[in-house]
Amino acid sequence: FHAQCLQRQQSPRMDLCHVPATQEKGWYLALMAPNVKGPNYAWLDPSRLYCHPQGLQDCVADLLQPFQGDPIDMVAGIDAMGFILGAAAAAVLQKGFLAIRKAGHLCVQTLAQPYTDYSGREKVMEVRTDAISPGLRILLVDQWVETGGTMRAAIQLVERLGGAPPPRVPTGVAAICIEDSEGGRWIQERYKCAHCVPPRLQPRFNHHQ
């Protein structure tokens, strides 16, 4: 997997046409580019995956597969990279999309939730108060769940606005990777989850290898 990432990173241009003959779940993960800029950046960049038409389509299909037959009223994506997968999932489901924003961007009445992100920085996220009515079934989508702080804050916002009855609020959580961290386990123990990393690769993703 790492060798494939490096090989694609060294290519002068992205190959947006190549699809492997054998497409096991997560084949598109090799499209992601490794970090070449140092510790202040995420260890992988999924942008290349999003640029690949078949890769993006298969990624979204894998994220939605566990929720087939589940009632979903709306998809919510987390600022900022969760907007890409969340909007794509909403389009496939033919449902509306709600943007959960970082504080300070919405000019309407909002509900705010403080949290600590994966880098340890204290932040605040907001959601407009008129988008989620009591009982609405929400699928929450983000690009990655590392420490779980960001996703947990989004869950708290949805719950505070009354989305879906307990004990399963929201309907589900989806991300390319949900790491086996304390926060990641907390989410997976309480909510129906979907991610794209095959079990054999999960330990390497947990250690950012």
From TrEMBL:
Protein known as: adenine phosphoribosyltransferase
Primary localisation category: cytoplasm
Pfam family, one: Pribosyltran
Family: Belongs to the purine/pyrimidine phosphoribosyltransferase family.
Catalysed reaction equations from the record: AMP + diphosphate = 5-phospho-alpha-D-ribose 1-diphosphate + adenine
Secreted recorded as keyword: no
Keyword terms: Cytoplasm, Glycosyltransferase, Purine salvage, Transferase
Subcellular location: Cytoplasm
GO cellular component, one term: cytoplasm
Lineage: Eukaryota, Metazoa, Chordata, Craniata, Vertebrata
InterPro entries: Adenine_PRTase, PRTase-like, PRTase_dom
Coiled-coil region: none
Pathway(s) annotated for this protein in UniProt: Purine metabolism; AMP biosynthesis via salvage pathway; AMP from adenine: step 1/1
Domain Phosphoribosyltransferase: 70-164
Enzyme Commission designation: 2.4.2.7
Quaternary structure and interacting proteins, as annotated: Homodimer.
A GO molecular-function descriptor: adenine phosphoribosyltransferase activity
One biological process term in Gene Ontology: purine ribonucleoside salvage
